[in-house]
Design goal:
Layout lengths: L10 H13 L13 E12 L2 E9 L9 E2 L2 E3 L6 H13 L8 E4 L3 E2 L4 E9 L13 E8 H5 L4 E5 L5 E8 L2 E3 L3 H13 L18
Parallel strand pairs: 1-7
Antiparallel strand pairs: 1-2, 1-4, 2-3, 2-8, 5-7, 6-7, 9-10, 10-11
Amino acid sequence: MTVPLDPLDDLTAFRGVAAERLGSFEHETVPDKPGLRRAGVVLCAVEHDGAPAVIVIKRAYRGRNAGQWGLPGGRLEDGETPEEAALRELHEEIGVRAGPGDIVGRLDDFPATSGFSITPVVVVLDDPGPLTPSPDEVHSVHHATLRKLAADDTPRWVPQPDGGRLLQMWLAPQWRVHAPTGALLWQFREVVLLGRHARVADFVQPDWTRE
């Protein structure tokens, strides 16, 4: 009897599970309002060192979000959909080309305190090719394995003075990722990797993410 491959350890198996779970997930869209700006980002799953992983970047130490952890992506240009913007930025920022057929679904829009509504698009690529990060936008490129994202000790919740809790996604000893990016990774973990229903729009964001 053939043993099914674990989607946390096999990219092909992950693609099938991700498409199924995102296909039944009713994502929420932030409604238009005056002053709202929109952005698209990519949760890009690839194989790295023999294991499926999501590409995470550290922003260049200049301009908006200097030095922060993030996902490839950026604001929509005139006439673009969030998916089109996300794929364009994936190529512009780290040199990876993906098409509409590589998208397996999307998660909830995240209303960032910076005034952006961020749409996360999930992409699976068998062969992303060489990564060529743009030095103007990206300081470094990293890979967070699906198994690490799914681990029990990756999300940590820090109590806040107002009674709320601040999420920190600890992807490595020095990788402490907060919302918005941390929230997107957490929903990806819950919905896509673990098959749970989860929303993130009300997650606390650090003050320094308001830029």
